[in-house]
Design brief:
Strand content: 25-35%
Oligomer: single chain
Shape: globular
CATH class: Alpha Beta
Order of helices and strands: HEHEHEEEHEEEEH
């Protein structure tokens, strides 16, 4: 059942702020400095993972002072839901990847299946090197097939939104990283908690 704007507003009002804007911006500063030191002289192609990676990628791009190219990829397991399913490719990059240094930027790394598939797709298409950057890494004991090269912040294993991450299609624009109230999460009977670079 689709979420209404009123329900999204109620969820936001009840949510717990995990990382305020200042903390997220400081994390983006650190990420940008590390990425610049590693890739600034290598003519990187930045791939934004839509839709969640839109805000983190934009915030990082504004901090980069080196030549780069930008494209995007759209692959998701969520499709507006709170639990992942089969990977669905909506769009692959149009820029040729052969011989390129690629940086894939996304919102969150939870279980990592979507990110792993995107990285592998870049390698199959001939990329020279593929790195990944995620704004949020979720702490849990579940086995992940991939880890990120650059991580902004770590959060507990809860359904989070803001700074690109959505709550059932809403609240990507929330000015910090928030966790959905536990009672609301359990009512939606999701498992595991949202993530996996949707």
């Amino acid at each position: 059942m689709p979420l209404t704007a009123r329900e999204a507003h109620a969820a936001f009002a009840e949510a717990e702020l995990l990382c305020p804007r200042e903390e997220v911006e400081a994390a983006l500063d650190r990420m940008a400095a590390r990425i610049g030191a590693d890739l600034g002289e290598r003519d990187p192609l930045i791939l934004c993972v839509m839709m969640g990676g839109l805000i983190p990628a934009a915030r990082l791009l504004a901090r980069f002072d080196f030549p780069l190219q930008l494209d995007y990829v759209h692959a998701t397991r969520y499709r507006g839901d709170t639990r992942g399913g089969e990977l669905h490719w909506k769009c692959r990059p149009e820029t040729p990847l052969e011989g390129r240094v690629i940086l894939v930027v996304d919102d969150i790394l939870d279980e990592g299946w979507t990110l792993a598939a995107i990285l592998e797709d870049c390698r199959r298409r001939g990329a020279q090197e593929v790195r990944s950057a995620v704004l949020v890494h979720k702490r849990h004991d579940r086995k992940a097939p991939v880890s990120a090269d650059y991580i902004g912040v770590e959060v507990e294993d809860r359904y989070v939104f803001g700074y690109g991450m959505d709550y059932r299609g809403y609240l990507r624009n929330a000015p910090g990283i928030y966790a959905v109230r536990e009672e609301r999460s359990s009512q939606e009977s999701r498992a595991p908690a949202r993530g996996d670079c949707a």
